[in-house]
């Protein structure tokens, strides 16, 4: 494997990890949209549309926040792409490194929100620094999962996964999971996990994290990302276990 992270040693582990990250992306956007002045920090498409509305002068949509989010997202993706490629070229565990970088940026954003605004939301004060840090973290995430390349699980959007799932069901309307090949079963599971993960993350963020306030919510998300990175480094590697001799 190109990644030294042991948590990605099997297809099942990859799907599980990407599902958790997808849920967290939904939670990030719930927190950012509902407590940071109606801006998406993970869903870049939403910010592109907000920016277009704002530049057109319609819908009372601000220009600065989506523009900052887009710029920071691009910067995070670019920096992570370079650094992760450098680590991979030297056989270093680039996947946990990407997760740690994402978590550190979220911790900085949460700490900044707490220092400036306490335990409440920040939409009224329009704190662009917090928006930039969270979007930067999501840009790092985008490059990290792109390098993992789990088909159907980009973790930051669900439209393609929903379309793939619908088309697959239409092609095989009577096929249940048990009647499919392992490859078909895994693909349908990934698409379902992506669509359901974004939705579940939005619900989780809205009901559990948004009431905590921006700062504390971001710190909780960062803690989960760090835990995932730690589990990845500590997980046993099946790929490195000796293979028993054939009878």
From TrEMBL:
Transmembrane domains' residue ranges: 12-31, 37-56, 68-88, 94-115, 191-210, 216-235
> Is Manganese one of the keywords UniProt gives this record?
no
Keywords from UniProt, A to Z, are: Membrane, Transmembrane, Transmembrane helix
Which InterPro entries does this entry report, sorted A to Z?
DUF1275
Name of the molecule in the record: YoaK family protein
């Amino acid at each position: 494997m190109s990644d030294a992270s042991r948590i990605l040693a099997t297809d099942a582990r990859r799907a599980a990890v990407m599902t958790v990250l997808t849920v967290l992306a939904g939670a990030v956007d719930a927190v950012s949209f509902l407590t940071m002045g109606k801006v998406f920090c993970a869903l870049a498409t939403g910010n592109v549309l907000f920016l277009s509305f704002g530049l057109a002068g319609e819908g009372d949509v601000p220009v600065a926040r989506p523009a900052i989010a887009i710029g920071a997202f691009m910067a995070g993706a670019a920096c992570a792409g370079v650094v992760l490629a450098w680590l991979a070229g030297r056989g270093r565990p680039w996947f946990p490194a990407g997760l740690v970088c994402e978590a550190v940026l979220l911790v900085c954003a949460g700490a900044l929100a707490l220092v400036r605004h306490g335990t409440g939301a920040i939409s009224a004060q329009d704190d662009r620094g917090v928006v930039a840090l969270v979007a930067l973290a999501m840009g790092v995430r985008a490059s990290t999962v792109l390098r993992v390349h789990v088909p159907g699980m980009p973790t930051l959007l669900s439209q393609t996964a929903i379309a793939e799932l619908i088309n697959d069901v239409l092609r095989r309307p009577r096929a249940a999971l048990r009647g499919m090949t392992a490859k078909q079963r895994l693909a349908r599971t990934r698409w379902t996990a992506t669509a359901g993960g974004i939705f579940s993350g939005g619900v989780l963020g809205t009901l559990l994290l948004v009431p905590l306030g921006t700062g504390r919510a971001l710190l909780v998300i960062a803690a989960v990302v760090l835990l995932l990175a730690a589990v990845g480094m500590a997980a046993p590697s099946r790929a490195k276990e000796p293979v028993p001799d054939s009878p």
